[in-house]
Structures
1.
Amino acid sequence: MKIAIMGAGGVGGYFGGRLAQAGHDVVFIARGAHLAALRERGLTLKSALGDATMKVRALEDPAQVGTADVVIFAVKLWDTETAAERLRPVVASGGVVIPFQNGVESIPRIGAVLGKEHVMGGAAYIATRIGEPGTIVHTGTMARLRFGAVEPSQRAIASAFHAACREAGIEAELVDNIERVLWEKFIFLVAMSGTTAVARVPIGVVRSDPDLRWLLEATMRETWQVAKARGFALPDDFVAKQMAFADGLPPQMQASMLGDLEAGGRLELPWLSGAVVRMAREAGIDAPANRAMLAALKPFVNGRQ
């Protein structure tokens, strides 16, 4: 199976590396110092699940990839439409893009550019970052992919990609209702991203401080209410179970948005807390905790520009 990695950072770099280790034809699309390091020294994974260093094929221009069966799409949310446009030649022969991004709006956003038949849905559960150019650092042992077809024509390639992931030792699940899965992840992610970024602390501090713990739960509950208003009837104990999940995470874990904030980079805020506020308003409900999160982080949304 030929697999292209659009966005070879933490998520794309880690899972692309595991697929390359298993012998699949993987090409990484990257830029800058990270691209140079991948070309010169290869890709290094540092993980409790096994360290590895491997030679990889790395390109800057997707047009040089040729066609691919699957594109793991892991760019930041502000780059979604621009990156999707560059993938037109890669999926020209029927390939599919699987966005493993944050947020719940990637499927329609990419579909508007490439056509809905070229976009599946996906969710990644992992804490990773670029430690230095060419090196992906994995925190903890959670490394899971969930994905699924959104069009009947995608079922065969979804099954084939699932088999490829399993061959690579990746914990992967092929799901029937991927949009519900995306909302399940979104509820937790919005709260995790917002609270760790607002307080500039990892999840261990958030969950042990009564006020920050309240904020974590309040933002989850608001997003859960928005999900219900949009037709995703998640169970009444969903937020309680997500809080229990948070209690089991490594205490040093933090959301990627906090890393972006500390590095002076752009934030995915408009598509996380910002999206909750927007969708709550459209549904005629209030989301005060998310509005406060949005207000506190809004001055930093464009980084140090």
Note: The chain has two domains: 2-176, 180-300.
2.
Amino acid sequence: MNRDSAIGVFDSGIGGLTVLQKIMEALPKENTVYLGDTARSPYGTKSVETVLRYSFENTDFLMEKGVKLVVVACNTSTAIALESLRENVSVPVIGVIEPGVRAALKQTRNGKIGIIGTEATIQSGAYTRALKKLDSKIEVYSRACPLFVPLVEEGWLDNAVVKMTVESYLGSLKQSGIDTLILGCTHYGILEKQIQKMIGPKIKIISGSELVGKKLKDYLSNHKELEKKLGKGKARVFYSTKLTANFTKLGSKFFGSNIIARKAVIK
């Protein structure tokens, strides 16, 4: 493993492509390897033990590819497995919760922050703990939105079903008085336009996906031994545990050209 080795990114499906996009924008010299565990998505309805196992298996897959650093682009995995991964993996591991929390605290003016995520992420309390650790006076309003992930994985991004689902989940949250909303799942960023339309322009949306690239850039700047110095990132490799048309379609949309996804076999 050296500074020219790739950055590994994994998610429960296609949502993490939003994180990868921001990483590639912030660090155009870096090589990347992406793993979407589409076959076992969604993670948000799985038990803690199952999410831990999946997270380690995904990390092991990326480690076999010789990555120098792992980004856990899945909020559920970050909430449940990040600390265990950091304790047991030989390369640095970065999650998606902390950047969103810091951005939300910087943004809020009335101290009322909403969080939407998978059932597992919300039940873990990871976001609430992180927010309260930095500011104990913050009021937190959480809502699990389990249907958002399957809608995105199916490619249903803008139709009557999506609109009805968004309104059903976020109606009461809109009335809570929050001025900031954290999208606590990478898949949700793909529905951001629909979510913003429903909650209105006065509530600021914070997407962790947009912030991970900056955090990673700062991390590598402080760890020069890992930072790729020369050239342009060329090894953009995509793996999926279940090859779907939507994975390729969405990936191609994000990265401006057709992507070729390889089938990943998780041991």
Note: The mean pLDDT is 92.
3.
Amino acid sequence: MTLALWSLLAFTVSTMKGNTEIASFDPYKILELDVGSEMSEIKKQYRKLSLKYHPDRNIGDPIAEDMFVKISKAHDVLTDDEARENYEKYGNPDGRQAMQLSIGLPTFLLDKENHAIILLVYLICLVILIPTVVGLWWTYKSKYGEGDVMANTYKTYVSLLSIYYSFQRLR
């Protein structure tokens, strides 16, 4: 079972590793241009690559069709002034994205002056406080057995029973 789960994990990771299209859209890279290229260079490279990957020239080739779509999108982004500015500013032709990965932390946790204090508090909690609480709980729980009856009560009960049965045998 464990081997099957590890195999599934390895397959998932290897499948997702090659799919970088989702992670980034770089119109300059798609058109094989340097960042900040002139409009004439963009149009020239677009014509060159669109002729190379055009679906009419590459009938039935899904890779060429996909590349042609990417080239068209990259051309649209780089020839539209607003989209180009958005891409260069925010990394996305649509502008700043509403969903960004961040962690909602109080600002005092992010100040560099507080890092040493935060680390000290964290270590005190992790090294002193949590082990102390667990140790106290374990000490308390070790005094009790099933049904929250104290271990000493069990011992007393068993010794009284053994005395009782030994008197019963003597009769």
Note: The chain has two domains: 25-96, 108-170.
4.
Amino acid sequence: MRKTNYLNNKDILLEIHKSKNSFCTYLDSAYNQFDIIVTDKNQITNNLIQTAKTNRSKRLGNVDLESIPKTDLIFRIMTFDHIPDQPGRKKNPKTVADRKIKLNFPPFQHWKFNENNELICIGKSHWTGDLEHGQFSMSHGIATDKLALMWMKLCERYATRGNVRGYTYNDEMRGQAILQLAQIGLQFDESKSQNPFAYYTAAVTNSFVRVINLEKRNQNIRDDILTMNDMNPSYTRQANDEWEVALKREKEFQENNTF
């Protein structure tokens, strides 16, 4: 069995792509792979078509650009056109996304040119059934097992870092980070970045810090209650108190011996 290289952006992107495709419908399974991403059909110009051909050539092994017909190119258009509205989801909606149903990843459609040089829709995210008469759906897809394994391995490796591995609640931090990746793992937007590892690492870091801050607040509350009842607080509180006393003595000594 091939070992998972979870630090490889290329492999992570591939699994993200497979996972998102499980939530999509295409006229043909071959149309799931896109050559370029845009936010509007009006952006599809001759220059962009050449860029799409270059991207497709690299993906296929540097084939001759002239041998790639325009009708083979697949354009991913980031759009909410096929996503149902959800009035009242946000009190003061500022974007189109705020007015739509909350999704697990940014929605898109795939388009291509037909033989008549017309752009036609060949695929939709968050969709089941026929492209014209199907329906919106968010429950029929799933993240791949390999992507889930990458999330777990990333959290496990982060948990061994020197600045976090000594905490007694290390397992809780790791579990919270895995949960966070399961919730936002597919929200990575390929149109804005090709570095999902950095995106995931930032999410894991925030999860670990969140748990650490929560535990510190709880510990301070426990120490305050113990101190109020004339009981010894945690060793951390005692060490901090001793350090503050030592600093105070040093400051008083310097003030009394200033000439």
Note: The longest strand covers residues 119-125.
